[in-house]
Amino acid sequence: MEWALTSINPLTISIFAGVVLLILFLRPKNSGKKPPGPKGVPIFGNLLQLGDLPHETMYKWKQTYGPVIWLKLGEVYTMVVQDAASASELFKKHDLPFADRKVPDVLTAYDFNQGTLGMNQFGGHWRVLRRLCSMEFLVNKRMNETTELRHRIRDNMERWILEESAAARAQGGTGAIQLSRFLFLLAFNLVGNLMLSRDLLEAKDPESREFFDCMNKVLELAGTPNIADYLPYLKWMDPASMKRNMTKNLGRTMKISSKFIQERLNNRKAGKFQEKKIFLMCCWSTRAMEKMDQTGSLRRISTLLSP
Q1: CB-based burial, 245-275: b 16+ in 10 Å, e otherwise
Q2: Which of 76, 126, 79 is nearest to 105 (CA)?
Q3: Rounded to whole angstroms, how far apart are CA atoms 55 and 126?
Q4: Which of 15, 178, 183, 221 has an alpha carbon 20 to 30 Å from 57's alpha carbon atom?
Q5: Are 132 and 282 in contact (CB under 8 A)?
Q6: What is the SS3 assignment for 53?
Q7: 215 and 307 Cβ atoms separated by less than 8 Å
């Protein structure tokens, strides 16, 4: 065993070094005209030069290289625009080439990015999502129709806060509560009522606590820098286990969301509800959803329901 370890370590290092050199040699050369920018180091580019406050570092670079700076963050080429005139020209004359947003690797779990308006690639499906939101969801008529509903959800939140605070004091505590959890429940139930015409979670429901905890982890992972986003050839390794953790937590939240949606669809199929068309039915009846199988459509709609 000792011989194996001492012989494998140098071999592993040699293979890794060879792979890195091969990637550096075979990667495409970007010989086109580029904006000025600081010179980076091999493999990492300018990634290690950003420091703890990247926005301040970029502002300092602006004094040297101008308002438009070209950076290489690992293997990701990035253009930084730091004045209004350049930004205006970018969005007016070059909007389509820059329409897509760089999607973090963790948000590709369960194709989550394909079901969200902010992370979806520009194209036909993105237009469907935008049309659904602009015509069926984020419209004045629907907002006005839900005034009473929003007041009821707010009142429920206030009642839950008072009940939990009183319960905490009864147990000898200070009565302090975790306000963020109740605000999360309020937002989730509001979306649930707009889409499914029902409250989805109760404050004392164990499933609501699990959903809240998992969504907190999802949001934390989505905002945490991941080295695999800058060195794409490391994605298969998932060196920080971020993709695995995202898959675990996001899978649980989507399972809970899918249960609500499937229940609502089953009730509709059985003729138990006769109310007017809700947002869920609009999603289900769109041409883009009809082209998918039931599992694919359910996953996309579950993504829309997730806050």
Answers
A1: bbbebbebbbebbbebbeebbeebeeeeeee
A2: 76
A3: 30
A4: 221
A5: yes
A6: coil
A7: yes
| Of 229, 234, 227, 260, nearest in space to 108 by CA | 229
H helices within 70-178, ranges in order?
A: 84-93, 124-132, 140-145, 147-170
Query: C-alpha distances in angstroms, 274 versus 118, 149, 193, 197, 298?
Result: 33, 18, 16, 12, 22
In the 8-state DSSP scheme, what is residue 106? G
Kindly report, residue by residue over 244-296, the tens digit of the pLDDT. Answer: 999 999 888 888 877 777 777 777 677 665 555 555 555 555 544 444 444 44
Q: Are 80 and 69 in contact (CB under 8 A)?
A: yes
**In the block, which residue shows the tokens 């969801």?**
137
**pLDDT tens figures, 196-255:** 666 666 767 777 778 778 888 988 998 898 999 999 888 988 988 999 999 999 888 888
- In angstroms, the CA 270 to CA 262 distance is 12
Q: Which residues pair with 73 in a beta bridge?
A: 45, 76
* Separation CA 43–CA 20 (nearest Å): 8
Identify the CA nearest to 190 among candidates 121, 142, 140, 129: 142
Assign residue 83 a region (left: φ > 0; alpha: ψ between -120 and 50; beta: otherwise). Answer: beta
Cα–Cα distance measured from residue 79 to residue 70, given in angstroms and rounded to the nearest whole number: 5
Q: Which two tokens stand for residue 187?
A: 């937002």
pTM, two decimal places? 0.68
- Helix (H) or strand (E) holding 78, with range, is strand 76-81
CA dihedral sign of residues 167, 169, 174, 175: positive
pLDDT per residue as tens digits for the range 46-92:
999 998 899 999 999 999 999 999 999 998 999 999 999 988 988 88
Counting beta carbons within 10 angstroms of the beta carbon of residue 304, is it exposed (0 to 12), middle (13 to 18) or buried (19 or more)?
A: buried
CA angle 219, 221, 227 (to 5 degrees): 145
